[in-house]
Amino acid sequence: MSEFDELQAVIRRHADARQAEQRACEAFLNALYHALRTASGPGLPLNNVTLEFRPDPDLRLRPAPTGSFHAAWLRLGLCEVLVRVRRSDGAFVGEYGSGGTFRLDSTTEDDLLALARTLLRHVTGVYGGATTTAPHLN
Predict the structure, then answer these.
(1) How far apart are CA 58 and CA 62, in angstroms?
(2) From which domain of life does this come (predicted)?
(3) Is the dihedral of CA 108, 109, 110, 114 positive or negative?
(4) What is the pLDDT of residues 17-64, one digit of tens each?
(5) How many whole angstroms from its chain centre is CA 21?
(6) Domain residue extents for the chain
(7) Which residues, at least 6 apart from 73, have a Cβ–Cβ distance to it below 8 Å?
């Protein structure tokens, strides 16, 4: 078997795992989008939040290998925040904006709301000049 044939076989063999991981990461990003829409509290939806899935700008291979980041731009009114997420040891690990990071072992509604509120505070601080280091939500 040539190296090219071996590459094609490996890609085919791991297609299901890659697709399952992509679906899980996209579902997480969608859940974060919904959490951002309700981050102001019950009955106070943020109507100017949108989600746009994008290929990860740092990804250098397609299809994305297992363990790669999956990305989306979240529009928060007048600004946009790139959020990247991947699966690692059963948790969702990610990055957002200018240096924000997170790791969520659980994706309950409360966990996602906490992440959404942290993300909003961090972005507000960046634009307000009040923060130079990003928070880490664990």
Answers:
(1) 11
(2) Bacteria
(3) positive
(4) 999 999 999 999 999 999 999 887 766 667 789 999 999 999 999 888
(5) 12
(6) 3-137
(7) 51, 52, 54, 80, 81, 82, 83
Q: How far apart are the first and last CA of the chain?
A: 45
Instruction: Give this prediction's pTM.
Output: 0.87
Buried b (16+ CB within 10 A) or exposed e, 100-130: bebebeebeeebbbbbbebbbebbeebeeee
| Residue 50 near residue 75, CB atoms below 8 Å | yes
Which amino acid, residue 5? D
Find, among 75, 64, 51, the residue nearest to 21 by Cα.
Answer: 64
Q: How far is CA 112 from CA 8, 14, 52, 115, 116, in A?
A: 38, 29, 18, 5, 6
Going by the DSSP 8-state scheme, the letter that residue 16 receives in this structure is: H
Side chain identity at 45, as an amino acid letter?
P
**What φ, ψ does residue 111 adopt, rounded to 5°?**
-60, -45
Q: Over the stretch 95-106, which tens digit does the pLDDT of each residue have?
A: 999 899 999 999
